[in-house]
Amino acid sequence: MKKIKTLNAARLVSDLKGIVGEAFVSDDIYDRVSYARDPMPYDIEDKNIPYAVVRPGSTEEISKLMTYLNKRKIPVFLHGSGTSLGGHSRPKMRSVVLATNRFNQIEINEEYMFMECGCGTICADLMKALDKKGYLLPMNPGSQIVATMGGLIATNTIGHMVDVHYGRPSHRVLGLEVVLPTGEIIETGTKSLRRPSGIDLTRFFAGSEGLFGIITKARMDLIQKPFMKYVAAFFKEPESAAYSFMRMYREKIPMPLYGEFLGANSARVGFQTKGLEPPEGCVTLATSLGRTQKEADENAELVRSIFEQEKAFRSMTLGPGEEQEKIWASREFILHTTQGKGNFVAIEIVSAIPHLAKAMTEIHEVPKTLKIFRDAEIYTYGHLGALSLHGLFVIPNEWSDAKKKAAFMEVMGVDRRMNLKYEAAGGEWGQMAVRVPFWRKKYGEKAYGLLKQMKAVFDPSNILNPKNIDGL
Amino acid sequence: MGKAEDKKEKKKMREDLLLATQQCIACEFCVPSCPLYSGWLTDSATGRMQSLHYAIKSKMDLDDRLREILYSCTTCGNCEFKCKSFSQAVKVTDIVKKARRMFVKEGKGPMPVHKLMIESLKAKGNPLGEPVQKRKGEYPSTFKKKDHAETLLFFGCVTSYQDFEIIPSTFEILEGAQIDFTALEVEEYCCGYIAHLVGAEEDFEKCKEMNMNAISKIGPKRLVTTCAGCFRTFKELYPEGAFNGIPVLHGIQYIENLIEDGKIQFKFLPARRVVYHDPCDLGRHLGIFDPPRNIIRQIPGVELIEFESNRYHADCCGGGGGYKSVNLEKSLEVASKRVAAAASAGADVIVSACPSCKRNLQLAADLGQQQRKWKIQVMDITELVAQAMIGA
């Protein structure tokens, strides 16, 4: 991308205001800095602070904005809620930040059996709206209280859910409204529950990580809320937890919708935070489903029996209630492991089924292999049912930005190595920005070249989330 | 304080705030919970923390825009609770208050309207510009201040100068329960909470001293306040064991005790659905949720219902943290959302235990009623209790 030699920022801001209205553009330094930060554990560099933040209110406004910015080759970074742990939403050069939070419309159409939502709709708001009508949103990220649907669909993530149930957004989205980086508006997909066979541009954008276009509206099918039953099990060895889920797949046990794992350190912190007796060893939590409560109960018993067979020293099924909520909430308190000492960096690795136990052993040994985090405490957790594991390290506040960044990169090296080794490619946080070196290694330079060519087709001036495709 | 010492203290304030603001990881989990969130991040805890962090890290001079960002916070603490749910809570309200102290220390704060309030505080013992004598304006004409009593009532400035019902109702309750009590009348001085909230710590210290002297002179066995802000101030900001170590109770705790002791009995009230609004200072900040609910449940004819967001999740009335005086319109907008939530929950009456919440919700309720949006009554819990002691 050609570097912009001179840009009249005042003129830019004035023009942006002309498109979306004065109240929705800011060049105030504090607004610009606030939208530039994300959960990456080091501060934004001054050279990457955006010129302005713009909050359009309609697809037409986004179209006009992109036409304007494309003509002038001014980079744009999208900001849903900026929750990406993979560096997607952090501006990597002077740019305009386009925030999508005004696109928060929800429409549930029970005649057609789909729902439509704006890209800035908060996941938890949509979950709540669907729940009221007896439907389930087939995604559940840890950031649900603030993550936006546009970001989730663009990342093609389902958070903690096990894939075999409802698939991913790319499987569930019926159609999208998209503004291309060049400003044109296109619609993809269908209003029918029968998705198009063959080429459907929907799938180009669901999972495009904001490289090809701006998803402004999404249509997804309605999923009837199933009955649920909860299971908790406690293990001395984390590998036993991994073997349990490997066995469930092998023995054709109805997979739970969630198969969560808390390593011993994480469980201790999470349980203490919720006022529960800290467990000895590690914990697995599963949510079994059924079309009836009886079926959910039976499936939960099957899951529990697998846990027992794989040496759980204690296991139980739990109905909805305080104990179940507390145990599950302890999982949500995972970031308490930072104990107020600083920020964090976490690896997100996925394993193919046969390697899961081995990956579990290795993740606990990671600190021995590191330099900056040599022998540091690693807090393990993950979504074992979805074959996914995390290892979290605390980055102390006192470290310099340079050291924080180096520490972050060191851990990302482990992420890369383990995903390659265990024949997977992560499953929640996307592939670009921080993972570009991994992607190139895994799929090769030819594939990477094709990806860049695709980017150029959609975004000839390379203005939309540029550099995410180049890596950090 | 010498010049060098002053400089050192200012530097230390900045260093502490730099470290504290690093604790915010910009995850934005707190954003939807901020009552003042307008769609811009700077109107949320994340934006406040990131703005402050950047200004200090970049060694910027404190400017009016940053001041506006930091004084536009009701200190309700909802953000901390949301943060705490997922991470080690960033002490946003502490950081905001420390930042405000930094503004005052560097001669850049508080907000102009707060300066007027502090001037009034110094001159008249209240931040509202009201004459000292008016403090006893709502006291019953029969009231005679005693030199000593077992229970000493402390009403606070909002109750004394801006409310017509809480003082007479409280007197009725205590007289009905045959309690030996008195109140400070014109010798009551602002508890100092507003000075603390806006960063005027020296002025807060003066308030503390004045009240500690006045209360000690009476030598009561307990101090009871009907104001959530005063209560939190006495509990958290005055020294432990202030007032010769006597217990400090909020009115709701005292009334609950009197009910338990059989000194208060209720009669039937006309059927009504009452929703309890948790004041941030009592609820989220001090964890006091049950006494008011226990009281309301015991009143025959009254049905207690809940806001969808209640207890730790309760939404702010929009009036706290010194914010109402900064932006009344926005403050009322927040209060209107709370009143709308009460209406949609099916409430006839909103009851609170904080005169500031009551006042803000009352203004919003009246406004909505004029616009025919809802018809809902707003009361302090003392009013409901006093009514129930007499009956319909």
How would you characterize this protein structure?
- The complex is a heterodimer of chains A (472) and B (392).
- Chain A is an alpha+beta fold and 472 residues long.
- Helices cover 36% and strands 19% of the residues of chain A.
- Chain A folds into 3 domains: 9-102, Uridine Diphospho-n-acetylenolpyruvylglucosamine Reductase, domain 2 (2-Layer Sandwich), CATH 3.30.43; 106-221, Uridine Diphospho-n-acetylenolpyruvylglucosamine Reductase, domain 3 (2-Layer Sandwich); 227-424, 3-Layer(aba) Sandwich (Vanillyl-alcohol Oxidase, Chain A, domain 3).
- Chain A is globular, with a radius of gyration of 22 Å.
- The two termini of chain A are 16 Å apart.
- The mean pLDDT of chain A is 94.
- Chain B has 392 residues and is of the alpha/beta class.
- Chain B contains 16 helices and 8 strands.
- In chain B, the strands form 2 sheets. In chain B, strands 2-1-3-4 form a 4-stranded parallel β-sheet. In chain B, strands 6-5-7-8 form a 4-stranded parallel β-sheet, with helices on both faces.
- In chain B, strand 7, helix 15 (355-370) and strand 8 (377-380) form a beta-alpha-beta unit.
- Classes of the chains: A alpha+beta (472), B alpha/beta (392).
Q: Which range does the strand content of chain B fall in?
A: 5-15%
Count of discrete structural domains of chain B = 3
Order of helices and strands of chain B: HHHHHHEHHEHHEHEHEHEHEHEH
Q: How many strands of chain B?
A: 8
Determine the number of helices of chain B (DSSP H or I, runs of at least 4 residues): 16
Low-confidence parts of chain A lasting 5 or more residues at pLDDT below 50?
none
User: Can you list the strand order of the major beta sheet of chain A?
Assistant: 13-10-12-11-15-16-14
Tell me the CATH architecture of the largest domain in chain B.
3-Layer(aba) Sandwich
Low-confidence parts of chain B, pLDDT < 50 over ≥5 residues?
none
Mean pLDDT of chain B comes to 96
Helix content of chain B: 40-55%
Q: Output the number of helix runs of chain A.
A: 15
| Radius of gyration based on Cα positions of chain A | 22 Å
Number of strands of chain A: 16
Q: Under CATH, the topology of the largest domain in chain B is which? A: Rossmann fold
Determine the N-to-C terminus distance of chain B: 61 Å
What structural class do the secondary elements of chain A suggest? Answer: alpha+beta
